[in-house]
Design a protein that fits this description.
Length: 140
């Protein structure tokens, strides 16, 4: 069974995260979304997809979490060039710690490339409509 882990804070989980997770399911038998916060929201979103499991994720190295779950890959999202430098460093360090676990990068659909959790939170705090960026349970 090919398992991938998709770690992140997902605060909040956006349609971009959902897009990447669902597309990763085409490459892997199981995708474990490891969420730092608001686990219940992610579980609700993915409850109908048997290939996706949502777990909590806190103070642990991602490569250790991957090993514990028999994952062969770590999924990461890239939106823009600004993301690349950080993600490249992270992938290189993870490879140094666990050469047997690959980092795989996904870009979201072009209609979602500009969406970030921090922007969605800011829009919501200022009373803006975030329904184009997040699922109804997250919006609520």
């Amino acid at each position: 069974m090919k398992i991938a882990i998709y770690p992140g804070s997902f605060d909040p989980i956006t349609f971009g995260h959902i897009d990447i997770t669902e597309r990763a399911c085409a490459l892997f038998d199981k995708v474990i979304v490891s969420v730092a916060e608001r686990i219940d929201l992610a579980q609700e979103i993915f409850k109908d997809n048997p290939k996706i499991e949502v777990i909590g994720y806190a103070s642990k190295l991602t490569v250790d979490l991957a090993r514990e779950n028999n994952a062969i890959a770590i999924i990461r999202g890239l939106r823009a060039v600004a993301d690349f430098e950080y993600e490249f460093q992270l992938a290189t360090m993870n490879r140094s710690l666990a050469p047997d676990i690959e980092s795989i990068f996904f870009t979201p659909k072009d209609t979602l490339i500009y969406v970030s959790s921090s922007l969605v939170k800011e829009i919501a705090k200022l009373g803006g409509d975030v329904s184009r960026f997040v699922s109804p349970n997250v919006k609520d």
